[in-house]
Input
Amino acid sequence: MTKHIPHDLALEAINAGVAKAKELKQRSSLSIVDGGGHLVAFVRVDDAAFGTIEIAHNKAFTAAALRAPSGHWMETVQPGASLFGMERAASRPLVVFGGGLPVYDGDVVIGGVGVSGGPIEADEAIAHAIADVLNR
Amino acid sequence: MTKHIPHDLALEAINAGVAKAKELKQRSSLSIVDGGGHLVAFVRVDDAAFGTIEIAHNKAFTAAALRAPSGHWMETVQPGASLFGMERAASRPLVVFGGGLPVYDGDVVIGGVGVSGGPIEADEAIAHAIADVLNR
Amino acid sequence: MTKHIPHDLALEAINAGVAKAKELKQRSSLSIVDGGGHLVAFVRVDDAAFGTIEIAHNKAFTAAALRAPSGHWMETVQPGASLFGMERAASRPLVVFGGGLPVYDGDVVIGGVGVSGGPIEADEAIAHAIADVLNR
Amino acid sequence: MTKHIPHDLALEAINAGVAKAKELKQRSSLSIVDGGGHLVAFVRVDDAAFGTIEIAHNKAFTAAALRAPSGHWMETVQPGASLFGMERAASRPLVVFGGGLPVYDGDVVIGGVGVSGGPIEADEAIAHAIADVLNR
Output
């Protein structure tokens, strides 16, 4: 039995992400998806570039789809490595750089968080701020 | 000269939409897009069916893309009418039933709202609750 | 042997279309494609709604692809008629309402014109203003 | 507050691009998009190969979507670099080689320019000729 992410908790988590993005002075897109990879909540902070929207979605999707942080796959998909090309192996793009995190209920993945807009370190810090609210 | 929709106002509008959805007991997807049709904020209320996500997006997109409520086109795209097939005349589907509304800055369209999940009347009532916050 | 549409003639034709759109007070998208249906020239007049861009392209494409005005097919694609559904019978949408016109070199079709943004009569008048420059 | 690009200025900029393309003897596609990535004006010079059309569009789109020249991302998306795969991380391809430039109103990005058809240096020179008209 998996639980869904309630919308009020999702919005609370989005607000925590907005606060972290403001603290880090990043204009970012913040996405939360459910265990099926489908959008639960989203906000684009300070009119972030619209090209970040879908990357945020796809980071969250990747984390839910493969049940691991998006950056987990970076080395293994490189040319010459064992999963070369995995990020383009399905119809929807997977993202292999950081900023996507799974959401857990115990040790069951029930969703994903994705952030895009700043340097990877900032995206990851904001994603953790969102996931921390959802993982409790 | 057009303005963008600030993220805090967008989230306030989303919250007004959530309140209206709860009042009407509708599990719905609520989307806000900017003047280019790109997502600004979103929430899915009470684990609404995931099939409603993209319909909400496309209602908001349609309202921004054609600068009219989505339901405005219902009659003219019917068999025998002057714009038959317009809802499928571009690569992204346009939605011609109600629940999509333009967002205005004076008389300039600066975005769109889309709601999907309930009967059209409920979708439209929730969309108006969201747009009322954005149009002030 | 078909001829291509020179870019300076295409821009002259676009300017004629802009003048007609201004005269009719229509905010419209104006497209010209070659004999292969590929874009030659385009302009969006007075910040016309962005939803009209692709419809203009697809009207021009339809005129070149089927070598007839886009509105030619309106009756035969209706429910119960002989080509029902033809407008969705290929991967790219065909448009069956007016505003798309073939471009001729003698009696050979060497391109198409598409206009979207106003009532069908205005779209057609602007399309004729463009085609008149190209058809000489 | 952002401004849109007027159609007459867009066509003036396109003409400057045509002149530069002729000077450099390049058969090229020239695209201008608005701040939402939607086409404002286009011309294909001297029957340039039709495969250049969409690349020009996508360069302009990339510059608007990420608010940076298309070539800005070339190093960071390489194998082993921090944003590996970003050019395919959304449904619409981003272009990471040169020829796409943002259009500015002050320091706000209000559009993009994309040129495709020649060597990168020529594409960039033509893109600058277009952007110089739009950025004033």
Observations:
- The radius of gyration of chain A is 14 Å.
- Residues 23 and 53 of chain A are 20 Å apart (CA to CA).
- Chain A has three helices and four strands.
- The domain at 7-134 of chain A is CATH 3.30.450.150 (Beta-Lactamase).
